[in-house]
Amino acid sequence: MTDEKYMQEAIRQALLAREAGEVPIGAVIVYKDEVIACGYNMRETSQSTLSHAELIAIEAANKKIGSWRLENCTLYVTLEPCPMCAGAIVQSRIKRVVFGAFDPKAGCAGSLMNLLDENRFNHQAETVSGVLGDECGRLLTEFFRTLRQKKKTQQS
């Protein structure tokens, strides 16, 4: 039940991204049963490659904790982390990652590979997948369907 509760918080972040015209991906970081940081995708707004929900949340958590080490934290994110975000998760020492929808094109927490469980790294993160996955996936599907419809309308 707790994973679903915090994933709902990540979904709220994804909805903020959607309202801003961004791909609806949201993330929250939990420490001692408290949300200490959140973020949502802001790549289009910032025009920065690094503006993924997970990286924004990690940076906010670093500031809140006062350390780059997030060893006893759990990251909840609506979409499976990409290679960049998976690398940041390993580097930040996040203990646990819970994600909603799988990403068959870029997912690096089980879809294409699992960088979070790569034993050649000095840190691995426990991974839980598919939490509210249908709801998280639906947000993305609807967003891209609407985007395609807008493009068709503009081309007509």
UniProtKB/TrEMBL annotation:
Transmembrane segments: none annotated. Zn(2+) binds at residues 52, 82, 85. Binds 1 zinc ion per subunit. It catalyses: adenosine(34) in tRNA + H2O + H(+) = inosine(34) in tRNA + NH4(+). One of its GO terms (molecular function) is tRNA-specific adenosine-34 deaminase activity. Keywords: Hydrolase, Metal-binding, tRNA processing, Zinc. The active site is at 54 (proton donor). Gene3D superfamilies: Cytidine Deaminase, domain 2 (3.40.140.10). Its cofactor is Zn(2+). It is an enzyme of class 3 (hydrolase). GO terms for biological process: tRNA wobble adenosine to inosine editing. Its EC number is 3.5.4.33. The keyword tRNA processing applies. Residues 1-126 form the CMP/dCMP-type deaminase domain. InterPro entries: APOBEC/CMP_deaminase_Zn-bd, CMP_dCMP_dom, Cytidine_deaminase-like, MafB19-deam, tRNA_aden_deaminase. Homodimer. Belongs to the cytidine and deoxycytidylate deaminase family. ADAT2 subfamily. Catalyzes the deamination of adenosine to inosine at the wobble position 34 of tRNA(Arg2). This is tRNA-specific adenosine deaminase.
